[in-house]
Amino acid sequence: MTEETPGFDEKPDVPADTESAGSPDDTAQGAESAETAGSAPAGDDKQGSQQDVALTAQLDQVRTALNERTADLQRLQAEYQNYRRRVERDRVTVKEIAAANLLSELLPVLDDVGRAREHGELVGGFKSVAESLETVVAKLGLQQFGKEGEPFDPTIHEALMHSYAPDVTETTCVAILQPGYRIGERTIRPARVAVAEPQPGAQSAKSGSEDDAKAADEESGGPDEG
Known about the structure:
Layout: H1 16-21, H2 24-118, H3 124-139, E1 142-145, E2 157-165, E3 172-178, E4 180-183, E5 186-189, E6 191-198, H4 200-219
Parallel strand pairs: 2-6
Antiparallel strand pairs: 1-4, 3-6, 4-5
């Protein structure tokens, strides 16, 4: 009786490349992974581009809003500056009007002081009071104007007397009957003056004599040279 020696079950020989290839399921999963890996960068680029476009649009909106707010602020600042200038101008105007109304009531007193000074009656305590009054009104901005010999200006002069004079070439103030007063550019009272105009025939006679002298020079060949 022959005895069989126990041993390992023999397995059929399997090619090495078949074992390394793996199962069909493993092959399919590898292909899907490869496709996913190949398509992932393209999707990320598209998403990043969309985000850039959205951020750019938001940035443009912010810049537009900033420009609008800046323009509004500049406009408000300009309006405020104009308001301040207008208020300051109105304040000065109101101050001048109030001072003019007050000083207008004092002009007769100043006229009396001026006449007393001309007649030498401004002496003693009356002189001190008069000088103090003139100092106060000067501080309030009151200015006296009107001098003899200046050209007549109807905007600041009031002619109360009229005459002709051979020694004037234009209408001239020859006497100041009452001085004028102003505050700044505001005239409180025009200067009341006596005016003189050139003689009606003096100008024509002067022009005729000049024409005769010119004609004589032309006939003689011009003025004599020294």
